[in-house]
Amino acid sequence: MDNRPIGVFDSGLGGLTVVKELKNILPDEQIIYFGDTGRVPYGNRSRETIRRYTAQDIRLLQSFDVKMIVAACGTVSANVLEKEIEGLKVPYTGVLLPAVQSACAVSTNGVIGVIGTTATVRSGAYGKAIRGIRPDAKVIGHDCPLFVPLVENGMVERGNRITELTVQMYLTPFLTEDIDTLIMGCTHYPLLYGFISDIFGNHVTLIDPGKETAHYVQNYLTSSNMLFEGDDPQPNRYFVSDTVDGFCETAEKFLQRDLNGQVERIMIEDY
Q1: Terminal CA-to-CA distance of the chain, rounded, Å?
Q2: What is the CATH topology of the domain spanning 6-94+211-270?
């Protein structure tokens, strides 16, 4: 057993999709979550800046003696190289590979769409990973840079006309393609799941990176005998690099629980 917490980080609120799924399948595990809300979004930054932010985020989580680190951010997963995290003394995963493995498994015709931040789509990492599993796959990627700001500003309620129009603008081009699977290549995007599914109906399988990554973590900890064992599970702790209030309001709606006293602001620049 290993009763240390799991460390999860993202540029903002999106990584809560991983947290929610982890708590569903591993309810006794403590999670230390960091949302870099003061520097969100990562998706329009240079690769060098993304890697610098990532190094700081990881150092913060390491200060809590976590047993595993999850980069719950599609942009980080697509832009941080293996050699840059190979020195970590704890296991690490991003969201890219779990999502890609699932997409390749469920796609019937091998035509797979990918949506993500500009930095994610520009990196080509999802396409490379997909073709590493299915060399004959056709990958169609489009960036959706306004999705993250919509989520971070809490504009996720069904019926929000601005969000509806933005989703239509970005996703309508996919309707002329023959995709049967779409990877939501940013953990913010599942908070817009209803809007996205309205575009495609039942014709396209949507891959939620948060859900796939949570199951990857469960399998890893189980096979490595690192699951929590005991009668006294500890509460999650949440850290942000900007105001607590805005984060709490949207996070509580999504997680459907009160976060009073569990969210703290930290100075990420100190790491």
Answers
A1: 29
A2: Rossmann fold (3.40.50)
